[in-house]
Specification:
Largest sheet: 2 strands, antiparallel
Distance between the termini: 152 Å
Order of helices and strands: HHHHHHHHHHHHHHHHHHHHHHHHEEH
Strand order of the largest sheet: 1-2
Number of strands: 2
Number of helices: 25
Helix content: 55-70%
Radius of gyration: 37 Å
């Protein structure tokens, strides 16, 4: 109570002074006394002083300095409590009394200094006073609005986005509530733009529109790129971020942003993306913001009613490739999964066998393929690995025959992973099989001369006889199965395999024999060594170190080590068995061919019997 009495006495003295009579000492004493009053929660006393018309000069001169003390007071009270509401009303009462620029900077300073759990707790009570002071601004309002939105968004971007339904309901950092509250906060400024009679002739409105568009695209990047946007099981409206996404897209439409034009003309190529990932178009767009925009349209169908389908499926896929590339190169599950969903959705619209090979000339297409392979092989999340494999098969199916041929050569060259190469070689076998079953009069790229380069790529060892056979076992088994299939099915040399047999033996069969002999000898030596260690060890739990497939395995007991080594030897025996079968089939075929030639030659060289010949 002492602070309240001191404040009232101080105000009675200061209210008699004119603005030019105030000293720095007066300001400091006034602020300290007000702060003590707030600490004692004598809010009504200070509120009455602010509202008293006798104090117009005093509050007009010193009022904006009260923002800091009032902020500290707000943080002590529960959000939405009556005491907090009184603090907010004090700030609202200060707006018409203080210099707008000083008051705005005072609020933004408090928002900018907030950290952690205090960020949203500071922003939420300030939205009404901030909106009021922004509406009070005259010239260059757009600058004040842009600065305010940028400050708020920058602070919110430091917080984690709730992802699961439980996290969204708990809303630990109040992020969900804060973004929802931003919708009514910016609505009056949206209305200013839409109600303007001639935007093109009003620079202020043009700049305001730009600031609002920039904010919308920032929100598409954060929080919407990280957020879970599928409707919740109970009620679609429970998903705050889905609601927020609808509002952001609606704002874009209301501001006159054509969604098809944004998708196409605001689309970007690799050459136009800045090093920081932004698109150099007046600072409005970013690569992530546009990718999120595309995801909302084509996967979540948010705003799709304002997007007339005048583009063909192939064009939409090609245009989306760069957005997909932005998303699937990320490692966060929330963003990576959106990239895979966007790719899946884009492929669904495309008919099988319809994509032309020139799609692979798009830089983003190659990036998508490489990133898809990385997800298949490196992603720690099993569901995403499986989905990427399904999508790669779908990509293959969508291409025309020439496109598949080009795609296979590309994947064999860049994948660098035995499992992926095995998958590609299996697809090559399927394409050859389909070609052999087609009408023989129709030329096919998977037969004859054009197939030869791809055949040699598939039937080869990455590093010749020095190839790590264990690490490359998937690829080698796929190659052997392909060769076995060709030897059995291609009796008329339609694939050219028989013409290229010498090269295949030189580049694949002989190096594989050498590699198998070296590998088996090495692992047999390892088995002998391990058995000796086991005999000399007094404990079965003695740890050993073993290297398999070029990788050092965790320390293990001798029995465990022997199990690994035997598994490796089994793999080599399996390869050797299939290789022997392939060589046997080749030998039978060649022998049969030689016999046919000899028989044919003897038939041609034998003289015909004379009709008049009589046996004696």
């Amino acid at each position: 109570m002492a602070a309240a009495a001191d404040l009232q006495a101080l105000v009675q003295r200061l209210q008699k002074l004119s603005e030019d009579q105030f000293k720095e000492e007066d300001t400091n004493v006034f602020l300290v006394t007000c702060q003590l009053c707030l600490e004692e929660e004598q809010l009504e006393v200070l509120f009455e002083i602010i509202k008293d018309e006798k104090n117009l000069v005093l509050i007009g001169h010193m009022g904006w300095n009260l923002i800091g003390p009032i902020t500290q007071c707000i943080l002590r009270f529960r959000l939405g409590s009556q005491r907090e509401n009184v603090c907010v009303e004090m700030l609202l009462a200060l707006v018409p009394l203080c210099n707008p620029k000083e008051f705005l900077l005072g609020i933004l300073e408090q928002i900018d200094e907030a950290a952690g759990e205090h960020i949203c707790r500071t922003i939420l009570p300030f939205l009404r006073p901030l909106q009021k002071v922004l509406l009070k601004h005259g010239n260059r309002r757009y600058y004040a609005v842009g600065l305010s939105l940028a400050t708020i968004h920058s602070q919110l971007s430091a917080l984690p986005v709730p992802y699961t339904p439980i996290q969204m309901r708990e809303d630990k950092h109040l992020l969900c509530q804060c973004f929802l509250s931003l919708i009514p906060f910016i609505q009056p400024f949206i209305d200013m733009v839409t109600q303007s009679k001639n935007i093109s002739r009003d620079p202020e409105i043009q700049q305001l529109r730009k600031e609002l568009l920039t904010f919308c695209f920032r929100c598409l990047k954060f929080p919407l790129l990280n957020a879970q946007l599928y409707a919740l099981p109970e009620n679609e409206d429970d998903n705050v971020y889905r609601t927020f996404a609808r509002e952001m897209i609606e704002f874009l439409v209301t501001l006159g942003e054509s969604l098809p034009k944004t998708f196409v003309q605001r689309g970007y190529s690799d050459e136009t993306i800045d090093a920081d990932g932004s698109v150099p178009d007046q600072g409005i767009y970013s690569a992530e913001g546009l990718a999120s925009f595309s995801y909302l349209l084509f996967v979540q169908h948010i705003g799709i009613d304002s997007f007339p389908f005048v583009f063909g499926p192939s064009f939409l896929l090609k245009s989306n490739l760069v957005h997909i590339s932005v998303l699937i190169k990320r490692t966060e599950e929330s963003i990576l999964s959106k990239g895979l969903d966007l790719l899946e959705n884009s492929l669904l619209r495309v008919d099988n066998d319809s994509l032309p090979e020139d799609v692979l000339d798009v830089i983003a297409a190659n990036k998508v393929l490489q990133d898809l392979v990385k997800v298949m092989t490196l992603c720690p999340i099993e569901d995403l690995r499986k989905k990427s494999l399904v999508l790669l098969q779908s990509v293959i199916n969508k291409f025309c025959v020439e496109g598949r041929y080009k795609l296979f050569r590309c994947l064999l060259k860049v994948s660098g992973h035995a499992g992926v190469e095995s998958f590609v070689i299996h697809n090559i076998k399927n394409q050859i099989d389909a070609a052999l079953k087609m009408n023989q009069e129709k030329k096919n790229i998977f037969l004859g001369v054009r197939l030869i380069p791809l055949l040699h790529s598939a039937l080869s060892l990455p590093e010749g006889a020095e190839t790590d056979l264990l690490q490359s076992s998937d690829r080698i088994m796929a190659s052997l199965n392909l060769l076995r299939y060709l030897v059995i099915k291609d009796e008329n040399n339609e694939t050219g395999v028989w013409s290229e047999l010498d090269k295949i033996e030189q580049n694949f069969i002989k190096p594989l024999h050498t590699g198998l002999n070296m590998s088996k000898a090495h692992y047999e030596a390892e088995v002998r060594s391990t058995n000796e260690k086991k005999k000399g060890s007094h404990s079965e739990k003695t740890l050993c170190t073993v290297t398999a497939g070029g990788n050092k395995l965790p320390d293990m007991t001798p029995d465990m080590q022997l199990q690994v080594l035997r598994s490796a030897r089994f793999t080599f025996d399996l390869m050797e068995s299939v290789l022997a079968r392939v060589e046997e089939l080749i030998e039978v075929k060649l022998k049969s061919t030689v016999e046919e030639k000899i028989g044919s030659r003897m038939h041609r060289s034998s003289p015909p019997a004379s009709k008049g010949m009589v046996h004696s």
